[in-house]
Protein 1
Amino acid sequence: MATFKDEGVVLRTMKLGEADRIVTFVTPEHGKVRAVAKGIRKARSKFAGRLEPMTHVSMMCWKGRELDVVTQVEVIDHFRGIREDLDRMPAAFTMLEAVDHIVVERQPADGVFRALTGGLRTLSEGTGPALLGAFLLRLLALEGVGPVVDSCASCGADGPLVAFDEHVGGFLCRSCRSGRPVAPDTVALVRQILGGQLRAALTAPPSRATAEVERLATAAIEYHLDRRLRSAHLAPDGR
Amino acid sequence: MTARPDIPSRTKTALPADHAVFAGPIQALVDELSRLPGVGPKSAQRIAFHLLEVPKEEAVRLAAAIGEVKDRIRLCERCFNVAENELCTICADSRRDQTVVCVVEDPRDIVAVERTREFHGTYHVLGGALNPIEGIGPEQLRVRDLLERLSDHNIVEVILCTNPNLEGEATAMYLARLLAPLGIKVTRIASGLPVGGDLEYADELTLGRALLGRREVAG
């Protein structure tokens, strides 16, 4: 049987039979990989602590027809900063869920993989209020469906952009406006995120713009995926 | 039973009528049995034919046991463990320490903790763990019932005994934050290496926690 090696981030796991789990990864070379981790639910499993969701690993698998089988795993990063902080978890879960819906099995996903590991590392090191919004927008841009941000998505006018409508695909000018109204700061922040000034955007202090970017990015990705992101609408801290 | 929509080869649906190879009642039994977790069509067939061969009393005893479990077992009103009466045997036992509550995800976890014989308090079954990706938030768990219980009784300690995985840890952190204002002692079960395990194969997270949670050894 053929084996392959790749890096991966565990997106989610699902119980299988008595002691196994199906683990879903996103990998740079093989896209989404679904593989069986045998015996992982037993206390002495050598996999158990390594194949938790949100773990960056280097792994080896048997290639199967429908499901692969995990043979070896080594951890690259556990993202402990996220794991041990209830306030950072919702953003991390939303990132994993969005990636799970976007990547396709056996189709290289290098860009998405790098965006996810980068996003999780940043989140693990400290929260940026614009991080989740920025991540989702980057994901859309990688998919080739990034929102139009430089001019009105409907008429192309440069004019002041005052609204965002995910159905039209970007920001809109005063005469074309539909969807949700947005502040000028929000437009500027989105331009920063998609225009190569990500680092600057991530250090922005929490503001109305960062909250608005997160909301419109969530709406845009949900429109693109044609489904709700469940983790984006649950507040596990009970607020 | 957990549905596994992603694995077509394992989906448990009865064969279409024209595939029925056995006389009606046997086929019906095979179909029912193959709905059980871990029982495929072949095992279902074997069990069905075994039941056909055993003395009638034995088969009827099995049928009666299934009926009885469905009729008589319900959830304990206090801790949501499986119970025969209003209270489960643990909640009803006056020798148990009612001031300590061990919070678990599932009634089966109670069995696991009971087998240790190290715990003499009572339990609270949440009915799962927080899992945003599956859409399970605090409202889907018995968190409110736990809070009500804690305000009513003389409880001095809550042990968070959820699974040491991402969802279980998130649940424990959430509960710890929720319970902090109540002034009750909240503890989390330790996590470390399994007895009979091997350091060489221990993962970094587990071994790291085992080191953090080390204890002084009396000489």
Note: Chain B has eight helices and six strands.
Protein 2
Amino acid sequence: MATHLVVAEHNNGTLTKATLCAITAADKAGGDVHGIVLGQGTAAVAEAMAKYVGTVHHAEHEGLAHQLAQPYAKVIADCAASISATHVWAGATAAGKDLMPRVAARLDAGMASDIQEVVDDKTFKRPMWAGNVIGTIEVTSAKKVITVRPTEFEPKAEGAGGSVSAFAADPGESKMSFVGFDAVQSDRPQLGDADVVVSGGRGVKGPEGFKDVIEPLADALGAAIGASRAVCDAGWVPNDWQVGQTGKVVAPDLYIAVGISGAIQHVAGMKGSKTIVAINKDEEAPIFQVADYGLVADLFKVCPELTGKIKEIKG
Amino acid sequence: MKFLVTVKRVTDYEAKIKVKADKSGIVTDGVNMIVNPFDEIGVEEALRLKEKHGGEVVVVSIGDKDATQQIRSALAMGADRGVLVTSNDAELDSAGVAKILEKLVAEESPDMVIMGKQAIDGDSNQAAQMLAERLGWGQATFANTVTVEDGKVTVIREADGGLETVSCTLPAVVTTDLRLNEPRYASLPGIMKAKRKPLKEVSPADLGVDLALQVVVKGLEEPPQKSAGQIVPDVATLVDKLQNEAKAL
Ligand SMILES: Cc1cc2nc3c(=O)[nH]c(=O)nc-3n(C[C@H](O)[C@H](O)[C@H](O)COP(=O)(O)OP(=O)(O)OC[C@H]3O[C@@H](n4cnc5c(N)ncnc54)[C@H](O)[C@@H]3O)c2cc1C
Ligand SMILES: Nc1ncnc2c1ncn2[C@@H]1O[C@H](COP(=O)(O)O)[C@@H](O)[C@H]1O
């Protein structure tokens, strides 16, 4: 029978939603599901994860204070070996994408990235070519490493609760060191978790456009803010707001694309949203092909009006 | 410093991708092929680091004979020489790419391997990290800024929630993100010179690599098409539809 090890990602002491989605995916493959929590001062995270899986392996070590792929991969692979794990899972977040191929190489496991469906315990479906193609792939090696597209799986619900067991971590020799982290300061919901996302593109014209038009609309909706690549490249907004094939994948209940043309690379990151609204002055813009509701208009005129109407409703 | 930079031959990001009727692959007839955009950024970064620190830039592609074009593009940008590892793409997974590169690294002894964060065809985002682990080297993925100093590479990385700075002792593997640089265009003299730059061909067998697949593509399909939405005349209608039809407000 399959034995799964799900790698926890945590943020300021809380388990991420992407981790819970990875647990759901592991469940679908059938078998025992374990978790691993790495870090320093992470007892609370291990306790939290035990509500979702049978056993949590808690790898506490000062050498694991920051997620660095080299020491993390070693400890995860050691833990996987100790429980004879057949599958190792994580969310397909920036952190998961950095770390998990390294785990795969260490375990000599084949890897399926960013899967959207578990067909069986060795077969998975995943988007390729910016979501233009869905590939069915089989991981033929004995051990398998999988990262999970969080928007395609429901987060696992809290269950009866398992146990936490200490794992004696040996991070080994590492050629990598952590220097610093420059966090994007924001009081808005996280892009990946938000129910509503308002995204701006080059049509917003500049950082002032984001301040004057996008932010008030997002505030009225309690929304997270996203952006197209063009806008991130221009430095108008933080890079980690980029939605798309090579940025974040989001699937909120409501996605409002403002001044975004709808290149396939952008659409790849938002087409799973429940309701999509596009505001663009060019009626030929490809974004209208994926939008449920399109408004052909000058965004500087209609966005303030929309913001006003929403405030009235939410008032 | 010596830089080993990978360039994958991929479908143009502007091409309309269609799946073959038998689901075995995509239709490539009439589809323009390019250097993977992330790899072009990698070539540019290597050239800039070479301009600063001196050294050599070696570009590698793994693929069929046609991948020579992508190597020549990198040579035209200014890379010094190329290596083509002849292989049919269908017979290759990311672990295979990493195994081939591991052997080339042993032959070439570069100080840094620069790769793309992902190939825009398979969207795997795996090969570089796998290589780093096989070599026991440090890795700095999704690089936004790369600085080399005192036998170390310090990289500002595009992470979730902000920018992370990590440092690796050399040799190390670096992968590029979109904001790292803007690749130069090849000049006409550059293109002429590229024709005469050395380009070596080897096979995986020459390198002694066993390419047993760990990941097999069973079939490809096109995703279901979304049905067309509606154009609304004004904000009032939009709000009404969002409230009463989509129940999204
Ligand atoms: C390797 C690679 C990876 C990429 N990855 C991503 C990715 O992950 N995410 C991503 O988004 N892109 C990505 N791209 C870029 C993508 O191809 C497009 O270039 C980009 O999405 C375009 O951004 P945009 O829509 O903001 O700009 P544009 O295409 O310039 O569109 C601007 C739009 O604004 C409209 N507009 C202008 N003024 C107004 C106004 N006053 N009112 C209303 N509308 C107005 C215009 O009609 C136009 O449609 C990638 C590209 C490559 C090559
Ligand atoms: N066939 C190949 N030839 C050269 N480089 C490759 C090849 N496949 C992958 N790579 C490199 O590995 C990076 C990541 O690819 P992937 O893991 O396939 O998304 C790419 O950006 C390339 O730099």
Note: Residues A 201-203, 228-231, 242-247, 259-261, 263, 265-266, 269, 280-282, 285, 298-300; B 13, 37, 120 surround flavin-adenine dinucleotide (ligand 1) (CB under 6 Å).
